[in-house]
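P.,

For your records, the input lines for the assembly:
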Amino acid sequence: MTQAVRHDAMRARNLALVLGAVGARGSVTRAALAEMTGLTKTTVSKLVGDLIEGGLVVETGTVRDGERGRPGVEIRISGQHVAALGLEINVDYLAACVVDLARTVRLRRSTQAVDNRAASPVDVIARLGDLAASVVDEAVEKGLRVVGGVLAVPGPVDMTSGVVHNAPNLGWRDVPLASLLRFPFPVGVENEANLAALGELWFGSGLPDFLHVSGEIGIGAGLVVRGRLFRGAHGFAGELGHVVVSPDGPQCRCGGRGCLEQYAGQDALQTAARGAAAPVRPATGTRPATTSGDAPAVSPREGTDAPAGAPGTLLPAQQGVSWLLSRLREGDPDARAACERAAWALGVALSSAVNLVDPDAIVLGGIYAPLFPWIGHMVADTLKARLGQMRGAVPPVVVSRLGAEAAALGAAGQVIEQVMADPAALLQH
Amino acid sequence: MTQAVRHDAMRARNLALVLGAVGARGSVTRAALAEMTGLTKTTVSKLVGDLIEGGLVVETGTVRDGERGRPGVEIRISGQHVAALGLEINVDYLAACVVDLARTVRLRRSTQAVDNRAASPVDVIARLGDLAASVVDEAVEKGLRVVGGVLAVPGPVDMTSGVVHNAPNLGWRDVPLASLLRFPFPVGVENEANLAALGELWFGSGLPDFLHVSGEIGIGAGLVVRGRLFRGAHGFAGELGHVVVSPDGPQCRCGGRGCLEQYAGQDALQTAARGAAAPVRPATGTRPATTSGDAPAVSPREGTDAPAGAPGTLLPAQQGVSWLLSRLREGDPDARAACERAAWALGVALSSAVNLVDPDAIVLGGIYAPLFPWIGHMVADTLKARLGQMRGAVPPVVVSRLGAEAAALGAAGQVIEQVMADPAALLQH
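Structure tokens returned:
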């Protein structure tokens, strides 16, 4: 019995070793796999056979002359069978995607006109279930087998229980999300900003060290250091939206005042763009003449929250970032000024973040991706003004190519990582 | 030749394995070491012999009945031979300490009445050299052999070149510190706040996860996660002193405005305590009636830097924190109000830090250790007001038992770690 357990553990370890080597090389012969892993050719052949049977790898069919004078069939990760489901609940949309084991995005779906703040968690999860079922059905039609999923949510998640203790922008408190999900495969839950950073790592720029900023109604960040996500002591790191921009600024839903979210979150941006908020910085809506860090002529006025229920405080999603983008393209001065204010506040909060965590680059994602042409320069200028004297090189500010899709992609990518780390869990004995 | 190189590498690895096992257990027999390391008893005996000869371990002399019926002499780390030098250059003091391999602090020395801002790097290093020579001489008299040192400096250090690019509080720019040091053993250079955090880890509270705050003229922080220091992408993480408290606040030496250092650094504190600065928060110097995060009646007034050369801007060290402490004990309202303002600002900056890096505890060190009775509560209250609604548990704010000694101890501790990781480097073949 102990012998059998040991054999199973060793087989599991070796399957992961071989699958990892295939993933690292792209395509590789059995002989090369034996060299890479230190296993015998016989063992490698047996393991590759199991992985082929399980649909995790496939022979390329390309027969080349091997180095030792005999033809070698190459093995690569199969994109035809095993797949992962990425899900996201955000404040004003739901998203789902399916990624195959070769990391190709096969399906993407998102709802547009929803406001999840007006719905109960049970209703939101029911709608998410419908969306997920439709993409899983489509995936099955493509011959894919969805083996697991991860759900991104806009708030800190207790990773062991799957409980969302507080997602203030959804109005959720102590929602036992993991236990409400009904899927025929395991589905984990994690913070949206963490997953968006992983999405950027696996499907985006390819940078190994960066701080990824997820601009949504709330603002989260994910720090990737040498290809790994930094989670902090309890997994709650990266709450950039509640970094202090101005300590006596507008009241925030988190209980603090003057948090970044109150200047640069999607709601704050749109309220300002409708002319309903404080005069922006600078008041004329033009770029400031100086970015040296001197006191500005006009600062964001503080404590000017629109009263609850006032026009513009709860925007329908169809009036979301696309409404703002069309205003910006028209040259609307309120919209431009709102973006300047948000970009300045982002620069201030990110200067604190750079001082604390020293990232190699800053990637602006979520709504900041489409807004980048209007905010990127000012974020970079504010950072340079605040950091330039201390640091020889201020981290570059770049745009995410994934935008709002990053979190769902990172969620699916996390399932792929799990399969790669433990393929034995998927295979029959 | 290759065989010899391989043998040396294996011996080096095994020496570290055995020394590490002794360090982990405290005291342990050769038989137990063989079991712990998987090495044969003959190999262990040979390695232990080498370690004894090199003075790294010692037989306890305590002979106990071994488990297998024969007496077993126990081995432990020797505190009698190998020792490490910890050094610190700070703005208003120099410090040196010697720690033996058993992690006992054997010597501590610091200068009191210096102002290193008024001196050239070469002069400061000459004085440091004198201080170091005196403690090394004393260590030699105690039979210790100082095998290496690390120097803590208050600014970011390029770890590969040993160049301090910018220590604004010392007025140093691009000082090639490592190449200016003259010691008969290797001496590394690292950032003071990083080393203070490691000092706290190795010689302080014993917590494995915390953010350590080094309050000096400048304010640095070191984040320890699961017993390891987080350094960021370039080793410049933890610049808490330049986290934004108020974006249009007083001009900071770093080029930014309203950085924490301008509210809670030692100079800012003392200037405020002399009544030379802005009215503090709250203006009466009493604790605010509410800590709920509501707008205060009076905020710190901003942009009120004392002009250069004005009384109180450059305090002689003898008037340093001891002067402030005596004022506080007398109940001086300006001194108390200055501490309230500093504590509030620390709370604001730390709330940003907690949101970004999610530490398990906050340890206040440096000058904040003696000031803790006057600032600890307000730091904790401000954190709770800003974080309490989002996070179930706000990290506790505790006082460092090491205070200003933490950095020099961490510096010596880093040499000890190096010896433990590679004892072969010290031993003759």
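Two observations worth noting. Residues 333-357 of chain B form the longest helix (25 residues). Chain B has twelve helices and 16 strands.

Regards
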